[in-house]
Design a protein that fits this description.
Blueprint lengths: L1 E5 L11 H6 L1 H14 L3 H7 L2 H5 L1 H17 L9 E4 L3 H8 L5 H21 L2 E7 L3 H11 L6 E8 L2 E7 H13 L4 E4 L12 H12 L10 E2 L6 E2 L2 H10 L7 H10 L4 E4 L5 H9 L7 E4 L2
Parallel strand pairs: 1-2, 1-9, 2-7, 9-10
Antiparallel strand pairs: 3-5, 3-6, 4-5, 7-8
Helix pairs in contact: 2-5, 2-7, 5-6, 5-7, 6-7, 7-10, 8-9, 10-11
Length: about 300
């Protein structure tokens, strides 16, 4: 069975999508439609902007979404998924590619999400950190010990065995990093991000996005969509919406998602979009499982 997966924020690079735009008429049409919807030429930043311009959440999220979705839509008959999934932002890309959301509605929601998250980031000094080579349960335990109602740190992204990203207030993340290094983490690296994604600090963004999601028509996808909040396959539009709303303050359970896809028969994974981050994660999750093929589209 074929699984198509879609990356999240952090996969962006200057020049992303330019070759697609230059060589594929459908891609050019969709990129230009996106420029019109957003009210500015995001393609100028994607193709020839600076790293700093591209790193802004309000630019990054629609840019990665556009590159990923347009890549899938331009694959033609080669895009025949038995299941799809996306990492954080990538879940929106997966939903559009699987027909649960229109291209236009998906882009509008991603832009609304990006703006709401940027606002939430500016309201609190917050950050994220990657914890390398510690069991998940040790990270969970130390986060629970350090976290308080006023100074939060939580597990945010279960990326693959031995790689878990934590998220929260700057002070709490720094304390947790010291304790995690003392507990044996090979690295506890604070990430260059604007805020505490997938933590309770994103509640204002979640409230804002919920209204937009509830007002958007969702459809039954052409195949199951494995979602971040529970790592399980979903096809019911109301369940998909509820999980998408919950995603902003909940952990991304990517390790468990891939494990469920493997258990459900996935043997071929294709990453649609910029970079190779998901390919690396899946290779570690599927380690030792024979017959699994992992590839990208760029």
């Amino acid at each position: 069975m074929k699984a198509f997966v879609f990356p999240g924020q952090g996969a962006q690079f200057v020049g992303m999508g330019k070759e697609l735009y230059d060589t594929n008429s459908l891609a050019k049409e969709l990129f230009e439609k996106a420029n019109d919807i957003l009210g500015y030429r995001i393609t100028d930043i994607m193709f020839a902007g600076t790293d700093e311009e591209l790193k802004q959440t309000k630019v990054t999220q629609p840019a990665v979404f556009l590159h990923s979705v347009i890549t899938a839509l331009c694959m033609g008959d080669a895009f025949r998924p038995d299941m799809v999934a996306g990492h954080s932002l990538g879940e929106f890309s997966a939903l559009v590619a699987a027909g649960a959301l229109s291209f236009e509605d998906g882009l509008k929601l991603v832009y609304a999400r990006a703006m709401a998250m940027q606002k939430a980031c500016e309201a609190h000094p917050s950050t994220m950190a990657a914890i390398i080579a510690l069991p998940d349960e040790v990270v969970e335990q130390i986060c629970a010990e350090v976290s308080t109602p006023d100074c939060v740190v939580v597990p945010a992204n279960y990326n693959c065995p031995g790689q878990l990203v934590i998220s929260g207030n700057v002070e709490a993340v720094n304390i947790a990093c010291e304790k995690l290094k003392a507990a044996g983490a090979k690295r506890a690296l604070v990430l260059p991000v604007g805020g505490a994604f997938h933590s309770p600090l994103m509640q204002p963004a979640k409230d804002e996005l919920e209204a937009a999601i509830q007002a958007t028509p969702f459809h039954t996808p052409v195949c199951p969509v494995y979602q971040n909040v529970d790592a399980k396959p979903h096809t019911d539009p109301e369940e998909i919406k509820a999980n998408l709303i919950a995603q902003l303050t909940a952990s991304v359970r990517w390790t468990q998602e891939v494990q469920h896809m493997l258990a459900d028969g996935a043997v071929h994974f294709t990453e649609c979009g910029p970079g190779k981050a998901l390919q690396g994660m899946i290779a570690k999750i599927a380690k030792g499982i024979e017959g699994v093929t992992i590839e990208g589209t760029n």
